[in-house]
Every structure is written in C-alpha cells, then in structure tokens.
Amino acid sequence: MKKYHLYLWIIALIGMITSCSQNETDALQNANNKMVSITASLPVDFVQPNPQSRAALPEAPDDQYKLRCILEIWDEELTTLKVRKEVCPAAGAEKIDFTFELDNGEYHALLWADYVGKNAVAQATAIAGLSDVQHYADRWYETNNATGLKEVRVMAMDVKFEKQDAFFAAKPFTKEATALKDLAATLTRAVAKLTIAEKSTTNFAYCKSVEFKYNVLTTLDVSTGIVSGTASFANVYGSGNAGFGEDITINDIPCKVLFSNYILANTDGTMPEISLEFAATAESGKVLNKVTIPAGIPIKRNHRINAAGTLILAQDAPSKAVNMTVDIDSEWETTDVEHNIDPIWDGKYPTSVEEAKAWMGTESSGANASSGRDHVFTITAARQLAALHYLMSNYVEMNVTNESYQCATYKLATDIDLNGKDWTPIGYDRVISNFYGVFDGQGHTVRGMNATGDNVSSSGFFARASGRNTIIKHLNIKGRVTPGVTSNWDMVNCGGIVGRMYNGTCIAFCSFEGTISATHPNNGTVHGGGIAGLVGISGSAGKIISCYSVVTEMSLTGTAIKGGIAGYTYNDTTIQGCYWQELAGIRDDSPCGTIENGGGINVGYNGHFTDAVGANDYDVINAMNTYGADYDYQWQAGTNGSYPVLVKKTVN
C-alpha cells in the first residue's frame, strides 16, 4: 500500500560564539573579556516546510507580519535571567547577531523564533526580573511573562495557520576566560501541523463550512521542551480558510481538505477528541451530520499529520460514528517511525435504505451505467461494509439500473478494522442474498472480523457468492468465524472469505488468518475451510486461485469436514497455487477436506507450510504467483515474522 508521506525537517541553528573587540587577537587573550557574540542562522524552510536553497532569512507568510528571534541567557540553575535580546532581522538578512556581556560561568541559552505584527516596535519592558528589555509586542505566543521563555503561552489561533509557525532551542554552555567557539544548537519546530480531510469528494461538495472544536496544549517551557496546559479552541473554516477544499491525496485516496492548523506539541502524544459541525450549501438541499473524531490521533512535534475520514454524511439523524485514517511518515537524518490508525467500527448497522445509501455514498465511477457491474464504489470506512450488508440483504436497487447492490463493483481503498464487533456476513439477514459482483481488496486488510450472526447457514466475510463473473480478489481477512447455528439448517458452511461459493465464482489472491468454530445442534454437517466452507453445488463449482490460509484453530462439532483451503468441494472445482498452514485434523495431502464422490479437482502447485518462515519460502511465493497473469497484485514475502503480503505489480 503506497503511503502518503508526511515530511518533517530538522533545522540547524549554528551559533558561533566569539569574543568581540576591535582587536580579536587581543580579546582572546584578555582574561577579563566579558563580550559574547552569538550568530544565528535560521532555517531556510521557516515559512514553507519544503527543502529550499536560500541564503537570506525567510520572509513572513504575508506582509502583515515580520520575523522575530529571542535569545535568553539563564544561570546554571535556570533561576535567574541574565540576558534577554530580541531581534527582527531586516529583509534579505542572512543571519542574526546577538552581542552582550557575560561573566565566566555555567549558563543555559534559550532561543525562540516566531512572527509579530509588521508595525511592532521594540519598547522597554520588564521581563523575568530584567528591566528595560527591548520587547516587540507578542502576537501569537506570549513571551514576556515572569518566567520568560520558560513559559511561552499560546495567545491566539487563526485559520491562516502559517503565521503561527515557531521554533525553539535550549543549549547549556560554559563561558570561560577566553571566547567560546563552535557552540552549536538545534532549533526545532515547536508545533505539529494537523490537517483533517474528507475522503468523499462527492459529499464535500454539499459542505459550505465546518466548525471545529477541540482542546489544545498551550504552554511551552523552552528550557525542557515540555508542553503543558490546555485550552479549548473553536473556529469555522470555509472557502478561503486554511486550504479549505484543496485537493490532497492520502493513502492513494483523493481527498478534500477541511482544515489545517499548527498546534504546540510534545515529542510524542495524541489529540483529544475533535467535534465537527457541518453547514450545507443552500443549493444542496442537504442536512449534514455532526461527528466527533475520537481521541487518539498521533500528534508529534515537528511532524505534519494528515488525517482523512468519511466525515460528511447527508442524513437526517445526527451521527457520531466516524472512521479515521491517519498516516505519518518522517524524514530525519535517520528514518523515524510510521504510524497508522485504521478505520474502526462501532458495530452499528443502518436501520433504513436511506441511511444505508448515505453510508455507502455515491459511485466513484459509472454512476450512469446501465450494467450493475460498471457501478464502482470505493470503500474507505467500515460502515460502508455494514451498508453493503444491509443493501444486499434487502435487495436494494441502484438508482439508474434495475440491478441491485449485489451486482456492483467494490474497491477497498484502505485497511479497515471491524474492531471485534459482531459481524453478520455480507449478504445474510434472515435470508441469504448472493453476492454477484466484484470485490477488489486492492491488497488491503480487513482485520478484527468476528463473523457471528444467529441462525446462519453460511458464514465468513461474505455469506455466499454466486456467478461466473463474480470475483473476490486481492483481499486479506484477519479474525474469526463463529456462527450461531440452529437446527433449522441441515448443514453449516464456514470459510474465512466466504461460507459458500458456486456457479463459477472465483476467489483469487486472498488470505485468511484466524480461527473457525461452529457447532451443529443436531450433529448435522459442518464444513470448514480456510478460504471457503463449501465450493459448488451439483454440476456447478468454483475457482480458488493463489490464496493461502493460516487457521490456528478449527473447532467443528457435528459431522465435521475440514480443509486448509476448502471444506467440501464438488467435482470440477479448480484450486491452484494455494497453500495452508498445517493444523491437526486438517489434511496435508489435499487443499480440500472432501471432494464429491471422491472425484478429482483441477489442482496445481498446492501445498502446506508449518509457519511464517515456510510461507515466505521462495518456492511457496513463486508457486502462489504462478497463476497471477490476470491479476494486478502478487504475493511478496512478509517481514518481521509476518506472512506473505500483497503488492501491486509494477508496470514495465
């Protein structure tokens, strides 16, 4: 899965402390010399965080502001402020010079840089025990309190966030008889940049503005780098504000920016919950929902964090359910960590056709096509899968065709977490509704599946799939299959991907990792397979191509028929390039538990492995990819103890 990378930079502040006098040589030899000069080179990307080659200091983000740099010198115990200097460098300047007197001893240098009003004039002010400090009026951050830079506080936040950029540094040093040389410090961004984006570009078009409310950290101690204190922040973002409506791509998904802001942050932490209230455009005729983004978005100083979700829903009843994807990547001198928060699910299903359609959203392509298969829906949130279940189970037709949602094409655009909530297999609700379309996982994973449901005869991620043009491909499922079975059924079919498949349905380049368990109360037949429970009906089977399963437990009570790939298969079933992990009670000489009438199936390059090392063996990977000519993804050996992963083929 291609990541949308969020870049950050370490900005170096190189301070050269030298003795200053008319004759430098004499000054270096003068034991009573108190003059100290610090020359600071500020970061070239101060305004726009992109690598640039620029000698001059950066200009302010607009003509209403100018750059300011503050230097404080504290004693060794950080209890007494000795020196405070503020400088607003002239346009085009290449460095900032601070010059002052200092006795020999141990000290701490604290530095801060931010923006102030363009007309700000230095005036004598008492700060932290020093009188007559030449101070420029603070605009975004308060720096003139009783403890100076040990307590920098947020004064205001604005929708034009670039003005709130700020940097800081702290450096202990020793002033001896002669001048110091080559004292270096690292100036670090004090803020994180947080961007919230909407995945549904269709629903974004309904939105005129959005009001955000959340708590922010407010106070930075430059001497320790610790940010503390909280205050609530609220603002309305609309056209012209903070990039509202700008295009951004996150995890290969085109999104629309709702807002961006700079936020004081520690080296590691998380955001509290964020509430959003949307206002619809008059012409849309829509009522937009309120949502709350749950607490937990990673927020790290000097990082840019892009968070995207399906946030805007046109529905009558308010909903606080929200799914978020957050991806963070960083580029330091060495690679930093990458974080991902997968979309999670609250376990709720739609209660009406209207609500289900709102959750699903409109087609990403083919909205006016006459064939159901040409209606393509992009899945970015768990609740869309819940909506698919509802729409299929109720045989709901799409808007411009008589074909139902059973026949459409669905493309998974991100990993999804079902959060261990009870999952009723897609297509099952009192009666079975076959899936007749295309489900393309695009190499992504649905994890946390807990396929349950009462009185279910076929269970898995899907209940049943049918049709020669029906295909489920490029999909990984992790979780468990544990259907609730009653005596109403003469057999029960359990599979990691699908309970039952027939009439030529194909499952290709899919995997399942988890457990399968079921009990038939009347000792009836229970089919269990890592990919599918039952394949085919008399005279009409299916295909399973290049799949693997890791079933760590298969507990079937009744007349149990187990298989590493499929439980029971009819003649003419094709299983090729499939592998399964060895498990007691599962045959190791066939991918199937039982084949109808002992007949044959079309097999090739199937086999089993004992663990992840065996699964990642070159011969296994090569065998699973043998039949992949018609598919866009292929298997690649996993890393760090994981099983094989799907990667998109490169185009030569």
UniProtKB/TrEMBL annotation:
Q: Which Pfam family, an example, fits this chain?
A: DUF6562
Alphabetically list the UniProt keywords. Signal
Q: Which residues form the DUF6562 domain?
A: 36-205
Official protein name in the record: DUF6562 domain-containing protein
Q: Which PROSITE patterns match?
A: PROKAR_LIPOPROTEIN
On the tree of life, the source organism's domain of life is Bacteria
Q: Does the keyword Signal apply?
A: yes
Traced from the root, the source organism's taxonomic lineage reads: Bacteria, Pseudomonadati, Bacteroidota, Bacteroidia, Bacteroidales
